[in-house]
Specification:
The structure holds two protein chains of two kinds. Chain A is globular, with a radius of gyration of 18 Å. Chain A is 37% helix and 26% strand. By secondary structure, chain A is α/β, with parallel strands linked by helices. Chain B is mainly α. The relative contact order of chain B is 0.15. Classes of the chains: A alpha/beta, B mainly alpha.
Chain lengths: 255, 225
């Protein structure tokens, strides 16, 4: 079976700085993949390239067989228009480190706004669905609150509900718990774990090694813009083949 | 000192109706120029954040020229200069167009600053949910930016009310023009001080409510409920 996500030889440079030096990953439908690595290793940039928040310098991304952000015209790759790109992004959920909830909308409207404005759902229909999504992340009782009245953990759960409402084929988590106070991390991880158990396809960039070990089918260790090694979590996390991976895990676990 | 006030009192029935009607003209020109400035300013702002470089530069040039030259000079160019080229404006239209085009440069900057003050994560979140940049602007960025823009726009409106005084130079019958006409009428030159004091009071009556609104908006702008 074709992979749901195919990343082919991805390169990304910011000016003279080469952040991704040729990364290729296939993710099967329903697979949970965690990416770990030191800061500056390029894992967040990789994730942002998948839905074209960053334009790759070279390489290609396919989701469900569809080329992302580009199309082929007479054998040449050209960038998509804003409208075409938006249609592709609607199927890829992105959970940000800093939540990025819309402060002028209630929790319910945060979740309902994209189904209404992007998918064209009627208000009532979008709100019923949004309520169900808030229910799923345990925040139905906060539906009418504005983001500033919610804790960080609650905000991130609303952000996850907002992504779920678009029924994405693929979910990307960019260090979804890194901006949270320690006591709030658990509630967000619990929601992500439940999503993993539903068989969703997820790509998770994380510093939570223990969490990565529990929920992932596969762990990738990245350093300096390249994949150093990958494999089942028990092998990568307990018995890594590379010295760099061992060093990184020791630093993380000795905190 | 007492004579100052008794004289004013004596002539008040002559002066007040004139200034009252002139105030109507000042309000008309202010509202007209404000409408032009707000609408055209949005075009200028969107041009300034356009991804296409020549469009950005064109808007920047417009902003710099309009802010870098006196409004009075711009007004004379529109009223006297264009009429030499066969494009005739009556004083009121020239005033509305002149002050409006001038204001578009300021309003454009206020819009742009408001849009750019919204954290880029808001745009990214909108795009990642499948919105086009235009939808993101309309449903996510602008509703937030408006809160940031309103207080400075209010301040601009206050400046505009006062700037309408310069259109007395092209004989638009607003407060300042009528006041000077009164003073020049032979029997009133002895009470010019009183008349201009009344002018100040009329302008203040227009600007004070705006100041109040600006302050309220300033206080409200960080809260979302």
């Amino acid at each position: 079976m074709d992979p749901l996500l195919r990343i082919v030889d991805l390169h990304k440079s910011f000016g003279a700085l080469e952040v991704l030096k040729g990364v290729s990953i296939d993710v099967a439908k329903g697979e949970k993949l965690s990416i770990i690595g030191p800061s500056g290793s390029g894992k967040t940039t990789l994730l942002r390239c998948v839905n074209y928040l960053e334009k790759p310098t070279a390489g290609h991304i396919y989701v469900d067989g569809t080329l992302i952000g580009e199309k082929q015209v007479n054998g040449k790759f050209v960038h998509l228009s804003d409208r075409e790109l938006a249609r592709e992004r609607a199927e890829i959920g992105f959970v940000f480190q800093r939540f990025n909830l819309f402060p002028h909308l209630t929790a319910l409207d945060n979740v309902a706004v994209a189904p209404r404005r992007v998918l064209g759902l009627a208000r009532a229909e979008a709100e019923v669905q949004a309520m169900a999504m808030l229910e799923k992340v345990g925040l139905a009782h906060k539906a009418s609150e504005y983001p500033e009245r919610l804790s960080g953990g609650q905000q991130q759960r609303v952000a996850i509900a907002r992504v779920l409402a678009m029924q994405p084929k693929l979910m990307l988590f960019d260090e979804a718990t890194s901006a949270l106070d320690p006591e709030l991390i658990g509630e967000v991880l619990k929601v992500i774990r439940e999503l993993a158990e539903e068989g969703r396809t997820m790509l998770v960039v994380t510093h939570e090694i223990q969490f990565a070990a529990e929920v992932s089918d596969r762990v990738i260790f990245m350093d300096a813009g390249q994949i150093v090694e990958q494999g089942p979590p028990e092998r990568i996390l307990k018995n890594p083949a590379h010295e760099r991976t061992r060093l990184f895990l020791r630093q993380i676990l000795e905190r | 000192m007492l004579e100052f006030w008794t004289k004013l009192w004596q002539w008040l029935p002559e002066i007040l109706p004139v200034l009252w009607f002139a105030t109507g003209m000042t309000v008309r020109v202010t509202i007209g120029a404000l409408a032009v400035a707000l609408a055209f300013g949005l075009v200028v702002a969107l041009m300034r954040i356009s991804p296409i470089r020549p469009i950005r530069y064109l808007a920047l040039l417009y902003t710099d020229v309009m802010r870098g030259t006196p409004a009075l000079v711009q007004l004379f160019i529109i009223y006297f200069g264009l009429s030499d080229l066969g494009l005739e404006f009556d004083p009121v239209s020239a005033a509305i167009v002149g002050l409006g085009m001038n204001g578009a440069a300021y309003a454009g900057e206020i819009y742009r600053a408001g849009i750019e003050a919204i954290h880029k994560g808001q745009l990214e979140a909108s795009l990642s949910l499948g919105m086009t940049p235009l939808k993101a602007m309309r449903f996510i960025i602008l509703p937030q930016a408006v809160r940031i823009m309103l207080p400075p726009l209010c301040n601009y409106a206050i400046l505009l009310v006062k700037d309408t005084a310069i259109i007395s130079t092209i004989a638009a019958p607003e407060i300042m023009f009528e006041a000077r006409r009164l003073v020049q009428a032979t029997f009133m030159h002895s009470i010019s001080g009183q008349i201009y004091l009344l002018c100040a009071i009329f302008y203040l009556a227009l600007t004070l409510p705006l100041s109040y609104v600006a302050q309220r908006l300033e206080r409200a702008r960080q809260r979302w409920h």
